[in-house]
Amino acid sequence: MKPLPVRALKEAARQAPEPPPDRLASRMDRPRAPSFFRRKRALAGVGLVLVAAIASLAFLTRSLRASTTVNASRLSIEAAAVGSFQEFIPAAAFVVPAETRLLSTVRGGRVEEIRIEDGETVRAGAVLIKLSNIDLELQVMAHEAQLSEQLSNLARAQTALNQTMNGYERDLVRLEQEIAIAQDRMDRRRPLAGDGVSMESIRQLDLELNGLKSVRQLISEGAEREQQDGERNLRRLRQSVDRLSSGVELMRATLADLAVKAPIDGQATLNDLEIGQVAAPGAPLGQIDASEGYKLRARLDEYYLGQVFRGQTATAGAGEAQYALTVSKVYPTVTDRMFEVDLDFVDVAPPALRRGQSLSLKLHASANETVLSVPNGPFYNATAGEWAFVLSADGATAQRRPVSFGRRNAERVEVIAGLAPGERIVTSTYDDFETVQTLRLMNN
Hints:
Blueprint: H1 6-15, H2 21-24, H3 36-64, E1 67-71, E2 77-79, E3 81-85, E4 88-97, E5 100-104, E6 109-114, E7 121-122, E8 127-132, H4 134-189, H5 199-256, E9 259-261, E10 266-270, E11 278-279, E12 284-290, E13 294-301, E14 313-318, E15 321-330, E16 338-345, E17 358-364, E18 369-375, H6 379-383, E19 387-391, E20 397-402, E21 404-408, E22 412-417, E23 424-426, E24 438-442
Parallel strand pairs: 1-24
Antiparallel strand pairs: 2-23, 3-18, 4-13, 4-17, 5-12, 6-8, 6-11, 7-10, 8-9, 10-12, 13-16, 14-15, 14-17, 15-16, 18-22, 19-20, 20-24, 21-22
């Protein structure tokens, strides 16, 4: 066999198919597709790196806010002190007259005359307003006519009874005379019986005498019955007259009330009244406020309705003056989520007060106690009563410190633990320092 030329061998080699990769490389040199678990591990690693970066950033930020410098003039700084503490309900009270009387009329009527001006001071008994009521006047006249008629009936019944009893008395007097005459004849003739006087005549006289006595008995009994019946009828008539008289007096008083008078001395306040206006029955026409004596009236949130009671003590102030009061009345009606309370002064109301004047009221909700406390302030809302910025002894810094606070009122907060008397805290707002550990105080 003749060997192939070199050129032919090269051409055959070029056209032959390439061997598979596993025959050209070793097992360690073969490429592998990445598996699902290798991709998951890679993502987890990236997440850990991000978390670590965020934590590092937060740590760096917190470290940067561990302290801050603030101008001391921007802060309110107060010291803890031992003193009296009392829970109270703060409210605004206003001065009102101690007594107020409403003006009204029972039956109503047409306004005929207004004799005073609104706000005028009046004396008790003075006529303020005159009304007229034609229907009421006609009713009074009708009742007076009925009363007059009944009085006439009573008089006639009394007269008739008197006449009847007088008739009985005349009959009895005549019978007594006849009985006396018959008895006298009997007494003269009885001894002569059989001696010129027959027994028959004596028997006739005896029958006549007994008959007269029987008639007298019947007339006496009839007179007694007539007297009883007449008195019974008179009693009924008198009762009817009394009822009519009471009704007439009441209607006359109602008619007199159409002249509205001031019940007490004081200042008159009239509603909008015009001549010719018709006032409805019972409608308020105005009021009279007593000229002497005052009390306080306060409006409280309905939240305190169960905490306020009659006799509860309170204090009210106007400037430096403080007044002691007690709750005299609690109005249970809630309007716009508020209810009202009246308070009387323990002593005489101060003369300097004026109607409508506003006073700051403290309604005592607990006994007065001696405790450690600090002045109340905006800091409490930010800390929920769990911590505070406490100043160092030199006042250069204020360190965040856990403090336990207890009861509080509008002025002070009770300290249970975490502060000593004399230590000072920042009581102003903490809105800019919630993540700060230390405040470095700078003075101008």
